[in-house]
Amino acid sequence: MTSTVIQGGRVVDQTGIRRCDVRVDDESGLITEVGEGLTGDTTLDAQRCWVAPGFVDIHAHVREPGNEQWGTIESESRAAALGGYTAIVAMPDTDPPADNASVVKEILALSRDALCEVSPAGAITVGRQGTALAPLGEMADLGVRIFTDSGHSLQDALVMRRAMEYANGISTDDGARVVIAQHPQLDALAVDGVMHEGGWSARLGLEGQLAEAEEIMIMREVALARLTGARVHIHHVTTANSVNLIRGAKANGVLITADVTPHHLLLTDAACQSYDANTKVAPPMRTDVDIQALRAGLADGTIDAIATDHAPVGVDAKELPFDQAPFGVVGLETALPVLLTSLGKPFEALLPALSWRPADIAGLRSRHGGPIEPGRCANLVVVDPSAEWTIDRTTLSGPSTNTPFDGVTVRGRIRHTIYEGQPVVIDAKAMR
Amino acid sequence: MKHLLSIANMQAEQLDEILDLTEHFAEIQQRDVKKVPALRGRTVVLAFFEDSTRTRTSFDLAARRLSADVVNFSAGSSALKKGESLRDTIETISAMGVDAIVVRHSASGVPQQVAGWTDASVINAGDGWHQHPTQALLDCYTIRSYRGSLSGLRIAICGDINHSRVARSNMDAFTKLGAEVVLVAPPTMLPSSLDGWPVKVVHDLDSILPDLDVVYTLRIQNERINQALFPSTREYRARYGLTRDRMAKMRPDALIMHPGPMNRGVEIDPEVADDPRAKVLDQVAAGVSLRMAVLFSVLGPGRFSLDGDAA
After folding, report:
1. Same domain for A225 and A312?
2. Of A198, A210, A319, the CB nearest to B87
C-alpha cells in the first residue's frame, strides 16, 4: 500500500474552493484525508495548481477492437490520462461493433490495465445498421449506461421511438437510467457533405453539410423524448439553432442533455481552406455565429458537457484527398489547454462541464466527478493553469496524431492525474 | 511563380503577365516549325488522375513545343491501382527528378496537397469542383484577343455553377481583370451561399441577353437530374439553353464560349455552336499557347527569349 499526498494546491469541486492537501491510497483507490500539512509515502507538488475531480469524456473512439493501428484502449486511455481524464466512454463503432454482451465484455477485459476507466457505450441497433434493436438489457447488465449508434445517425424514427421506450424498461443495479444518445444528422439532407455548407464550401468546391440536417434531427428527438419520457442525449451539438432547440426543450421539461466539443467551440469552416483533412470532422465545424451560440449555451447550462469526440485516424488516411479522408480529430490530450486558452474562462468555470456533469450523464458519479473528500474514489487531476506550451503533433502520445491544433501555443497544462489512488501521470509524463 | 494552383489567390498583374506572354507563344503557333528550345532539359509530368482528353493533349503539346521532356502518367495504369497512396506516388515521381507536375484530380484540393509533397512546380489542371486555372486564363486570352481587354465587359456564366471548377476559376479571373460577371442558373445549381463572390445572380437568361458581351455556357451533366437539380434536359434547354431564338437576341459582337465538350442540343444548339460568334475552337487553340506561357512562367529562366537558348 502506497499513500500519495498532493501538496499545496487549491482544491476545487462542486462544494467550492479551498487550499489544502489531499492524501490518496493506491490499494483502496480512495481519498483518505483532506487537510493541511499531510504526509505520505510520496508527495506530488501542486503549488500554484488546481486539484480537481478528474475529467470525464462521454464521447471517445478508442478503435479497439478492430482498428488497432489507429488506437488501442491502452494508447487512448494514456492520452486520456495525459489530458486529465479519469474516465472515458468508449463509442461502440468498433469492429465488431459493441452491439452485444460479448463485445462489451471484451472491451471491459481489455480495459482492466487502462490508465483510466473505460466505460463502453453500446449500440442501439444491431451492427449500428439502424433497423433491429440491439440487446440493450444484457449490455446494461454489464454496466453500459449510454446507448448510441455513434457515427451512424439512427434515421428510422420508429426504431428510435422503440429504442427510447425499451430503454425506459431497463433497470440498473445503481438505479441510474440508461441514456439513448443520437448523432443528430438527417442523412438525406446531409448528403455526402464533407464540411459545413456555406461560403467556404462554395469557394473550396467541396460538398457541404447543411446545418438544418442536424437541426431537423434534433427537432425529431425532442419530440420523441417528450413522447416517451426517455433520457435522451444529443452528441456534439454544432449550430446556433440546435442550441435554441435544446434550450426550448429543457424549458418545457423534456429530459434531454447535450454536449459540445472543444473544436466546435473554437474553429470555423474557414479552417478547411487548407484542405488539411485534420480539419475534417463530423459534424463539421460551422461559423462564428454558431460558435458564439455554443459558448452561450455552455455558459447557461443548455449544453451540459464538453465531450471531445476523440477520434484517432492514421496519417495515411488523413492524407487522402479531403473528400475521401475519414472524419475525426484527436482531442483528449489537448481539450483543457485549448479551452482554457481560447474561451477566456477560468478553470473553475469549465470544470462542471468537464467533470461531474458528464459523469452524471454517463452514470459514473459514484466513482468520478467528486466531491473531493475522504472515502471518495481517488480520481483526481492537478492542473497548472499558467504553464505555456505549444501543441506539437509529433509529441502526442498515441499512434494517431490527427489534431487540428498543431503548432498552437496554449496556456494550462495537466500536471498530474490520479486514477484509483495511483498517479498515472506525474509532471505531464505518463507513468506507464 | 512557383506553382499555379488557383486563380483566387493571384493578382491581376500576374494574370496580365501570363496573358502577355501567351501572345508571344501564340506567334510560334503560326510558324512552320512550332518548337522552341525554351525548356530544353526540363521534365514535365502529366499526372492525370481523372480522365481528360483536351486538357492533357493541350498540356502535352505545350510542353513539347517548349522542348521539355514529357512523361505521361495516368491513374488507370498506375501504382495507385495497386494500392499505393497518392503521397507515395507523388514522392516517387519527384524522386526521379522532375521539374513540374501537372495534376488533374476529381477531388478538390489535391493539387494544393501535392504541392506540399514535392519540390517540383505544381500546375493545377482541374481539381474537383474547385478550380481550373489554365481554362480560366485561356478564356481570358480568347476574350482579350477579340475585345482588347476584359475591363468593363459584361460576362454571363450560365449553367451548373455549383459543380463547376470552370465557373469558379473563370469568375475569379474575369472579375480580377475588371469584367462584370453575372451567374445565370436555376437556384438548385448555385451554391447556397455566395458570400464574397463579386457577382450578380440572375435566373432569367433572356432578361440580360441583349446586354452581354460574352455568354459563357457550361456543360450540363445528365446525372444531375437524379439529384433533383433540374427536371429534364428539355426544360433546361428551354430556360437556360443557348437556342437559335436566343442567339437572335444577342449583340452582333457578342462572344459565345464553352469549355467543351459540348452537349449540342442541350446547353447549346448546333446552329449556335457553329455561329461565327462562337469561339470554342479559338479557346482550344489559345489553350496550347497559354499552357506554354504557364509552363514557361513556372520553369523558365525568368526572362524569356523566344528563339535563343533558355540559358
Report:
1. yes
2. A319
